[in-house]
Amino acid sequence: MRILRIALPIVIGVGLTAIMFHKEFDAKAFAQIRFTWMNIASAVLAIILMFGRDLGLSWRMRLMCRPHNLSWPDALKENMLCEFSSATTPSAVGGAGLIALYLKAYGIPAGKGVAITITTVFLDELFLIIACPAMFLFFGSAELFGKFSSVSFFFVPIYVVTAIWTGILYIAIFKRPDLICNILLGIFSIRFLRRWRHKIKRSTKDLRTSAKEMKNKPAIFWTKAFLATSISWTCRFLVAGALLAPFIPVGAQTLAFARQLIMWLVMLVSPTPGGSGISEYVFSTYYSSMVTNVSVMLMITCLWRIITYYAYLAGGLIILPGWIKKFRS
C-alpha cells in the first residue's frame, strides 16, 4: 500500500506528461532551440531557489521548536519528510498534518508538535491571503488569469475559504486553543477511536500549554517566523520565473511570479497526490501565453516539476528509513 501511494503520483504525473509530449511536441520546433549558458544558469538558479525555500522553512521550524534545540540538519530532514508527505497525498491534505509525528523522533512532545503544526499552517495561509490581493494592485484579472478561464472560476471561492480557514486557525492559536482540544476529544469519543482517547487527552494538555506559549511569544518571534515563511514561499514562486527567464522579457518576471501565486492557491483543491497530472497541465497551459513555443513550454514544465516535486519524492525516500529507525529507538 505504501509503495502504491508513492508510485501513484509518479505514474499520474509521468503519464500525463507523456501524453502531452505525444500530442504537442514538435521535433522541428525543438531542433531550433539553442541551448546556451543562460539556459543552464536558469536551471541552476531554480535549484538554488528551492534550496532557499527549504532553508526558510527549516529556519521557521527551528524557531517554533524552541526551547528544544532542533539542529539545522534535523530541521532540513523534517522539512524534506513533510514535502514527501505532501507529494504522496492530495494537495488539500498536504504534509503539515504529519509535522507532530516527524518531530516526535527528535524529542518534541506531541502537544507541542500539534501547536507547531497549527501555527505553521496559519503562517502559510496568512502569507497567501495577503500576497494574492497584493498582486491585483500590479495586474488586472486579464493578465493574471490569461485565457485560462477555469483558474479565475476557482480562484475566488478558494480564496474565501482559505481566508475563513486562516481566521479559524488564528482563533485556535491566539484566542481559544481549548476549542480545538474539545473538538479532538469529541472526535476520539467515537467508539472505534476511543482506545486512543487517553493519549489524545494527554496531547491536548500539552497542546494547551504549547498554545499558551505560542500566544505569549514576543513580536520579534512572529516577525522572524513570518519573514521565514515569506522567504520560503517567495523562493518557491520564483522558480518558475527562473526557468522561464531565457524565453521571456525581464519585465514579465513579476507576472510569472504572480501567476505562480494564483496557481498555487487554486491547486490547493487538487484531488491527486501532490497535484500529479493536474499541476503539469495547468502550468503548461497557464504559461503558454508567455512562451508560445509549445515544445519549449513542455521542457520547462518537466524541469519545473522535477525541481519542485520529484526531487522531494526522491529525498523523502532516502531520509525516511533513517527517520523510522530513529523514531523506533
Characterise this structure.
There is one protein chain. It contains 14 helices and no strands. It is globular, with a radius of gyration of 21 Å. 37% of the residues are buried. It is mostly helical. The longest helix is centred in the last third of the chain and has 35 residues, at 294-328. Helix 3 (37-65) runs parallel beside helix 14, helix 6 crosses helix 12 (253-266) and helix 8 crosses helix 9 (177-187). It has helices at 2-24, 27-31, 37-65, 72-87, 99-104, 110-138, 141-145, 149-175, 177-187, 197-215, 219-244, 253-266, 278-286, 294-328. The model has no long low-confidence stretch (mean pLDDT 81).
Helix and strand layout, with pairings?
Layout: H1 2-24, H2 27-31, H3 37-65, H4 72-87, H5 99-104, H6 110-138, H7 141-145, H8 149-175, H9 177-187, H10 197-215, H11 219-244, H12 253-266, H13 278-286, H14 294-328
